[in-house]
Amino acid sequence: MTADKYAEALCATGLAVLLYDHRGFGQSGGEPRQQINPWIQARGYRDAISFGSTLDGIDPGLIAIWGDSLSGGIALAVAAIDQRVAALVVQVPSMGAEVPPADPDGSLYQAFRETVLSGVVEPSSEEVSGPLPVVSDDQVRQPPALRPLTAHRWFSEYGGRPGTGWVNEITRAQPKTLVPWQPGLCARHVSCPTLFLVAPDDEMPASLPAVTRHAYEQLAGPKEWVDLDGGHFGLLYFPSEAYERASSIQTRFLSEHLLARRRL
Fold it and tell me: Is the pTM of this model over 0.70?
């Protein structure tokens, strides 16, 4: 559902790409199916880094991670926690509806980090909500996870294509953890080069541009912010002018921070 097109664009520049679905989604195995649990997905990124580092021709010191929407926030958290991440690219990242609480001594971040690394994140039955549709034609009788009409349009058009394997159903896991999921707590601990591609008119409640900007300002390392019109789903239409611009910016950024270093 378009992530493959970004992977192809990156590969065309000479970068190797490991493209995968999160556990329980798409072509990946795992149970339960269609359950959104960002803690588990953060661990999936770390497993992918470990696996990718073992492949022939891969320099383990030059690994970047990429994420869109919810996975953008997850990727940022992983970049703060896992020092193997050499560069980070996120587009329309879901950083939450509010800025995170102040964390002057870093204790909230440390609790967040410990939860990702070794905390109990498998939810009990009481900590799972749903199932509910991702998008719905009748939001009164069947309230969906995503309400904006732009979400309905994108998921219906892309998910409805033959062979995608997309299922219009999810559950949400909210295990009782030391701190709630809030990737913004991690932003000031990200020291690798980071690219933010943001929609100034983002319509998703969990991707408010002001909250995203707050996270961006906290980043400790080299960083680049790019505004791209089209709302939350604009970069996911292929072929499109928005995709071409976003993919060219990403390939340029990663070439500068990965391929250039490899030549040195």
Answer: yes
